[in-house]
Amino acid sequence: MNTSVVIIGAGLTGLLTAYRLQELDFDVKVLEARERIGGRINTIVSGKAKVEMGATWFNESHYYLLDVIEEFKVPYFEQFMTGTSYFQTFSNVPPQEIAVPNDSPSYRFKNGTVDLLNSIAAKLKPNTIFLNEEVNEVNVIDDDVEVKTNSRTLNAGIVITTLPPAALIDQITFTPQLPNELVSLAEQTHTWMQDSIKVALTYKKPFWREEGKSGTIFSNVGPLTEFYDQSNLETGSYALVGFASGSCARFTKEQRIEKIEAQLKMVFGDEALQYESYHETPWYNEEFTKSNRQEDNLFPHQNGGHALYQEPLFENKLFISGAETSKHHSGYMEGAIFAAESVVAKLKSLHLTQ
Length: 354
Fold this sequence. Notes:
Largest sheet: 7 strands, mixed
Distance between the termini: 6 Å
Radius of gyration: 21 Å
Mean pLDDT: 95
Structural class: alpha/beta
């Protein structure tokens, strides 16, 4: 068995897969189209604050993730939910004060979600990860797989793609072509967060905590549908972060800000408008996440973990992996890790039988 492996995508699945395979003495290269690792994990630094524009929270049911966090010694802490929270039912009804039960807490990474990725990447051999390498073609030729990027051609025995399936079929040309059934399935597989807008506002002080509020909003009205305190553990930086509704996509950034400010003023008062910075990531505009072939009427996690994604292609030369392919917590960080462990187990089994 040719043990040279090219992994497409340096998100959580790609990096963990690379580490596991290197431990098994595979020769691994990870190709990432972006100029950063992480995919839909993206921690940005704004002043003192680190805010999450992608994957953020996990809980005690995410036991594969918790095992990896323990393995790589990545510190985390419980999401702040103390105090009054708010629920908006209808636009003509004032926000209702609610208490959120804390029987199933969520957690965040002390140094940002990117800390998990950096901790894994730090254990990879030098010259494993290559950024700004956009894969355009994958050609299976006899016993070899040819991978063409925007800058070079690589050869490997095995290719593992960790891209969302819809992005995969949109962005990469395969020879031989992928089976029609798989292409059709990929078009109808929901890419988690593709239709999301993540919003973050940073503050000089946590005015909401000082007023006995948790910073949490749940809303049927919008534009913000979920909003949470994202101050750091040491309470030296302060932020509110969450999601704007998909319907906000039809507005300009300036219009979104105007509507978000109006909502925050209604819920929290004028102090909410005294923010230091505003950040947003409309994931449907992210070049290497979105797919022009993704159907618009998909429901969340549709076709995630489908059986077709579990089968290697082209005589075990191509493996479809990534969070959306996971049969367990598809789309989430937990699913990304399960997908990595699954593909590694398959390759380990094949390696031992050959």
